[in-house]
Amino acid sequence: MPQQGLLPGSLVMLVFGIALLWGGLTFFITTALRAEKKKEHQHG
Amino acid sequence: MEERRDQWTSRSGFIFATIGAAVGLGNFWRFPFMAYQNGGGAFLLPYFVALLTAGVPLMILEFGFGHKMRTATITAFKNLNRRFEWVGWWQITVPVVVVTYYSVIISWALRYLIFSFTQAWGEDPGSFFNVDVLGVTSGPLEFGGIRWGILAAVALVWFANYYISARGISGGIEWACKWMTPFLVIAMIIFVVRGITLPGASYGLNYFLNPDFSKIADPSVWVAAYSQVFFSTTLAVGVMIAYASYLPKGSDLSNNAFITVFANSSFDFMAGLAVFSTLGYAAVKAGVPFEEMAVAGAGVAFVAFPKAVSMLPGPFWLQSLFGILFFAALLLAGISSSISQMESFASAVIDRFGVDRKKLLGWFSLIGFAFSSLFATGAGVHILDIVDHFVGSYAIAVLGLVEAIVLGYFMGTAKIREHVNLTSDIRVGLWWDLLVKYVTPVLLGYNVISNFINEFREPYAGYPTGALVLFGWTVAIAMFGFSMIMQMRSQQLDLSQKGVG
Q1: Given a cut of 90, is residue B494 above it in pLDDT?
Q2: What is the pLDDT of residue A2?
Q3: pLDDT digits over B74-132, tens only?
Q4: Which residues of B touch A13 (CB under 8 A)?
Q5: Which residue of A25, A30, A33, A43 to mutate against B (max B Cβ within 10 Å)?
Q6: Residue B60: closest CA among B429, B468, B387
Q7: Cβ separation of A13 and B40 shorter than 8 Å?
Q8: CATH number of B11-500
Q9: Could you write out the DSSP letters of every residue in B479-501?
Q10: Nearest chain B CA: its distance from A41 CA (Å)
Q11: What confidence score (pLDDT) does residue B348 get?
Q12: Residue B406: what pLDDT?
């Protein structure tokens, strides 16, 4: 019978993956949006 | 009067196109199983190191080079130094060869999209895929005749590629990727949510995520992580150089590179969650060990996933809808990548010779379709596997090495760094020069050498030597030979023009 529920190690790596990959992506997209807003401000 | 060069109309359009190019069929089945076979969750550590030390630096290098030269790969290398034009020619041979078999895999997704309506794979998806759909023969030298259903789907895929690419950057690729890439994001979120909320999902997820840190000491795990990042981001094949050459002056380069690479890796990770949770559920429901469900390679999409779809809770139409969404996502991931391969070739030839885009792509599509028919035979899946292995190991990896050396040492990383820093949101420091000049060449060099040694240790995937020579070595050597011939012809052409002048 397969074990049910995420193992603690799996949970740690899930959080690690989400934090680094999705966290990183969110940070870079936010930086881009801020830069575009700043450019618009300067030109507008 | 010189015609004005097309360009991206928005930053989001460019980013959607680069993500569309990078996210392909491999994201769905290569990364999840690479993690599974190389330490589970522990694989994320070397993968993340590879992302930061190879994926991002090389993406910045290609964006910077393409944008600085403002032309696609052949002319970009020619303008850098006439002696290096062959690098550009060699680069475009990769998408030219790859798109002929990639369009065949996309055609499988198209056929399965239609099969999903009735769940035509029935009780035995493995036999349905191998016997009924592909008609797989016993080996690469036994052709077994054309599979007409596949060939018809391949024709539609080539038409879609032509239809989008012939409309150019802003009117074709940007327009298509602005809806294809968001569709992929939404579809992937649905797959993950559906997958992880299934009973027994954690059984599969533990195979994907539970770390075995002892594997990190194994060099082959690091080679696998660097290969995954490098091949998955569509580097060294002229695509990103061409795309960046169409960015308006003053565009950001470094942050766009970070976004592209991180978005592609986020897709990798989401695919792992979606595939392993769904297969975990199916294994528990069928009462079989996970290993029996986990079929590596294309089998995960065309055998294991259909099997899981038919086991999903809910009425038949809901299961079918999930299948339709999955194969539509595969189809669009494939198309957004194959149009980037077409563009690498088209931009390079148009910039070098000033030919008409529609005519060039029309002929290219017709000839490409003719070559694709080889992969639509019963032996197609074997031939495809051999060609893909040799193109990856002896063209793409070597090209990455050559590109890093030529741009790092002959052009100079400082020149590209200064250009990137002029307009980018994130400043690139000396760390980047070190990665491009030292770390990347060493890692790719190690990768190429280890591939080469393995090649002679045992025949790839147990194929007969004759087939490996015919479809593997011959193709890889011909690609390099072609670039050398074009280099010599180009120099002769330049000399004769000077003589006339």
Answers
A1: no
A2: 62
A3: 999 999 999 999 999 999 999 999 999 999 999 999 999 999 999 999 999 999 999 99
A4: 40-42, 44, 209-211
A5: A25
A6: B429
A7: yes
A8: 1.20.1740
A9: HHHHHHHHHHHHHHHHHHHHHH-
A10: 15
A11: 97
A12: 97
Q: What is the pLDDT of residues B8-27, one digit of tens each?
A: 999 999 999 999 999 999 89
The interface predicted TM-score (ipTM) is 0.95
What type of residue sits at position B393? S
Cβ of A1 under 8 Å from any chain B Cβ?
no
Residues 6 or more apart whose Cβ sits within 8 Å of residue B139: B379, B382, B463, B464, B467
Interface test with B, best of A11, A12, A18, A20 (most B CBs within 10 A): A20
Q: B295, B53 in Cβ contact below 8 A? A: no
Q: Please report which residue ranges of chain A form alpha helices under DSSP H.
A: 8-17, 23-43
Q: Which two tokens stand for residue B344?
A: 């690498």
Q: What is the identity of the amino acid at B385?
A: D
Domain segments of chain B as ranges: 11-500
Which percentage of chain B shows pLDDT scores above 70? 98
Kindly state whether A33 is in contact with chain B, defined as any CB-CB distance less than 8 angstroms. Answer: no
Q: Determine whether the interchain pair A6/B11 forms a contact, defined as Cβ–Cβ distance below 8 Å.
A: no
CA of B203 vs chain A CAs: smallest distance (Å): 6
Q: Which of B110, B119, B272 is nearest to B191 (CA)?
A: B272
Backbone angles phi, psi at B135, to 5 degrees: 55, 45
Average pLDDT of chain B? 94
* A23 vs B: CB within 8 A: no
